[in-house]
Amino acid sequence: FESVPLQIMGHEKSQNLIGHGDCYLQIHLEIYDPCSQPQQGKLSLTDELHWADGFIIVYDISDRASFAFAKALLYRIRESRTGSCKKMAESSVFLVGNKQDLCHMREVGWDEGQKLAIDNKCQFCELSAAEHYQEVVAMFTKVLRTITSNFKVKEKRRPSGSKSMAKLINNVFGKRRKSV
Ligand SMILES: Nc1nc2c(ncn2[C@@H]2O[C@H](COP(=O)(O)OP(=O)(O)OP(=O)(O)O)[C@@H](O)[C@H]2O)c(=O)[nH]1
Fold first, then answer.
1. Distance between CA atoms of 3 and 5, rounded to whole angstroms?
2. Could you tell me if the CB of 99 is within 6 A of ligand 1?
């Protein structure tokens, strides 16, 4: 297994396998939920913006105030992306409209959620955590796949990275060892 450390919002640590066929990736997942931390300013996200590889912003489709808060969080993330925080430009952001089972009490339209996601260059879905936990699993799987593929793209883009440096050292010292 290849091991990749991952950090996402939340406050739980676990190890997961992601992949298909014979190809699986072992992931160290840290989920950190800043909204459940009473001591923090809910909108600051100052530390998280520097270390998180991904953000899942969840609102309640039957509660417009939660959508407004999600919007404020997305703006906060977006302004960090355009600012000096280089890490943010590489992180993945997902907007999730929860409580789809309460669509008879809907206050936020699906198209509003999708538009907000498009405007902020993030992915979007609606689901019901209460009635269809599989949708939550599918969403997390998608988040992890996006983040791990971001890592792979970064690796490919880095010609003088650790892998190519190891190859270089091997080429130089490997040949010498043969001739000794
Ligand atoms: N109908 C419905 N209720 C849900 C769903 N998901 C969560 N809830 C309910 O919404 C309430 C809040 O859920 P939490 O998991 O505490 O959500 P939270 O975002 O952590 O809330 P905070 O504690 O305010 O941060 C609970 O009563 C849940 O049972 C859903 O998909 N449908």
1. 7
2. yes
